[in-house]
Amino acid sequence: MRLALLTDLHANREALDACLAHARVRGADRYAFTGDLVGYGADPEAVIDTVMDHVARGAVAVRGNHDQAVSVPSRSGMHAEAREVIDWTRARLKPGQLAFLDALPLTSELGNMMFVHASAHQPEKWEYVTGLEEAERSLRASRSRMVFSGHVHAPSLYRRADDGRMGSHTPRDGMKVRIAPQHQYLVIPGSVGQPRDGNCAACYAMFDDEKRELSYFRVPYDHGAAARRVIAEGLPIVFAMRLVEGI
Predict the structure, then answer these.
(1) pTM
(2) Pick the CATH number of 2-245 from 3.40.50.2020, 3.30.70.980, 3.60.21.10, 2.60.40.1180
(3) Residue 1, Cα to own-chain centre: how many angstroms?
(4) Which 3 state secondary structure label does DSSP give 102?
(5) Is 162:182 a contact under the CB 8 Å cutoff?
(6) What are phi and psi of 134, to 5 degrees?
(7) Domain boundaries along the sequence of the chain
(8) pLDDT tens digit sequence for 186-245
(9) Burial classification of residue 65, based on how many CB atoms lie within 10 Å of its CB (0-12 exposed, 13-18 middle, 19 or more buried)
């Protein structure tokens, strides 16, 4: 199985289409979407419909904090601009799309793999995994050898060795990592729809479970078109600038 791992799509249709096309060329035969399908971007309907279609054909999808904010209205935990987009998104979506977001689980498992948006440790708390301490906490909370998550908008990789030692890597485009069966890994592909590491190219990863090989990719796309869509819809301009600047 070649599993394409996509997270933090953030209603960016151009970035999602580019990553899906890239993954198909590289032989992806299954897909996983680890949350935040919506928020920030201008095309929530198209993005949700795309993910719904993939789920109907066997893809994995879990809930992100933006997905939850749209389906379960709350005024806490987000800054004003993000809440503005959440309210705008909720008003745009059809009942079936809202129901799909509301039905997304916090976690999902497939074989020896776990999928979660933030941390496997108290996933409902939406903890950001930005270092070894948080990564170890997430890995210890799961019995799976591979934990795939998102929430952090830059690619990263953590390993917990069989003796308990932790290590980390900053992945590069095209980087292939050999997965040792005795270790435990936390894989964060980076954001499809709103990268924040200074590179505006979309991020995703692919795991080949037969070769036990993990690959990270950066996919150029028309981020200018996505930014113009944000502006045209009257959404906060900061979210257009993030797409252009990658921060």
Answers:
(1) 0.96
(2) 3.60.21.10
(3) 20
(4) helix
(5) yes
(6) -70, -35
(7) 2-245
(8) 999 999 999 999 999 999 999 999 999 999 999 999 999 999 999 999 999 999 999 999
(9) buried
